[in-house]
Amino acid sequence: TKSIVLQIDSKPQAVSASALRRSLQERLSKISSKSSDEIYLKLKTSTAPPLKLIDLPGVEKGNLDDSLSQYVQHNDAILLVVIPAAQAPEVSAAKALRIAKEYDGECTRTIGVISKVDQASADPKVLAACQALLLGQGPRSSADIPWVALIGQSVSIASAQSGSVGSDNSLETAWRAESESLKSILTGAPQTKLGRSALVETLAHQIRSRMKIRLPSLLSGLQGKSQVVQDELVRLGESMVSSSEGTRALALELCREFEDKFLQHIMTGEGSGWKVVASFEGNFPDRIKQLPLDRHFDINNVKRIVLEADGYQPYLISPEKGLRSLIKTVLEMAKEPSRLCVDEVHRVLLDIVTASANATPGLGRYPPFKREVVTIATTALESFKNDAKKMVVALVDMERVFVPPQHFIRLVQRRMERQRREEEIKTRSSKKAVDAEQSLLNRSASPQTGSTSKSLKDGKQDKDAKEGPALKTAGPEGEITAGYILKKSSKTNGWSKKWFVLNEKTAKLGYTNKQEERNFRGVINLEVPIEHSKLNLDVIGYLII
């Protein structure tokens, strides 16, 4: 639509495009060319965000340095750097470009405009500089900025071609004429950067880019406001339905929500739900362990109960009557821990009721109904607590009254199984001792001299020929004697226990550190003269341990 509402001095009025142009020209013509005051133009439409255009004609003269930052520091502000075509060769020295680079170093919201190209059409140097800017081949400070070329008399050109300055289509005609004129002047420049149509397209592209950047934050803000509104509605409460059936349905729905929250606390352990399990698995077993069971199952107390119950001639198989009496007495002590467990669970459930009511959003909207639900649940839990106490007492009494015979049979079976395991352990231990002794005898029957080993036949005398508990004899005629002897070391001047083997036939005495070793560490020849060996068999006998 071409309908435009112009608001001047707070008085809106519908105007056409041509009327708007003439009104702007009349108002701008009254402003002195030497004035440095800002010129504001605000555009609003129902299909696009509002735009505020601010012209700062005094920037080049330095009159607006103090107030300039309040306009250009905003991220949503698009900077239009307008350079006359005659200054294109020296664009790097333009103050407006330096200000734009200062506030927009990445050139993401800056657009360059080369104006009055028609007035410099006779200067090839200027035209070449303009084409370089449009092609992005200008100085480094201007290479990242999109540039658009304009002429200064587009409306006059359109009027000369169409002859209808006052028509509504004069602006569109002027823009088309401007583009055609620029094509003839800047033959090497891109056509998408010529004329006011290209400027409008470039501005629209920048606005869309800025909107895409701002869109996530805008959506986040809207969601935040929506949450605030929902929280306020929850705080104020929804309107109750008018009919009794609707009220009943709403109450039942809130009760179901409360029930779901209550079961969630119980099943998942949320809040205080874990304390229910802790009562059964922790506190209750601890109380049972603290009962004086050792005093009741003391052997003297058991004997006394058996004598009192069965007399001095009890049953031949088992004093069952006395043991039954003992079990009944002990089970009676379990009633009090059971009641305490019920009380503890009851207190935990009361806390869960309060927590579930607070965690139900629907009940929060109706405080009176919430208090009523908590009261009803508390009353029901009180009734359940009384029933639970009666139930646990009845369960204990059932165990006390009926002690099955299988209980005593299992006791006897466990005792017999324990005795069998103990006997097996003793048998294995004695067998190991016998095997070790036999291995010792077999080891003693295998003497060695130097590096030569000789196998001897086992005889009946290797079991009987013993001179003492520390000596072992072997060989057909008992000529081999083995045992531990203390040997004095020449290095340490101390005594150490060694395993010696004496062969009377060969007159040699060998020794090892341990009985299990297969090779002798040393061999003493007993046939050498006494004065050389310094060894006396009587002395050896005294050293045997």
TrEMBL record:
Residues 439-454 have a biased composition (Polar residues). Residues 422-435, 455-469 have a biased composition (Basic and acidic residues). Gene3D superfamilies: Dynamin, middle domain (1.20.120.1240), P-loop containing nucleotide triphosphate hydrolases (3.40.50.300), Pleckstrin-homology domain (PH domain)/Phosphotyrosine-binding domain (PTB) (2.30.29.30). Coiled coil: none annotated. One of its GO terms (cellular component) is cytoplasm. Residues 422-475 are annotated as: Disordered. GO terms for molecular function: GTP binding; GTPase activity; microtubule binding. Residues 1-216 form the Dynamin-type G domain. Pfam families: Dynamin_M, Dynamin_N. Residues 478-545 form the PH domain. This is Dynamin-like protein 6.
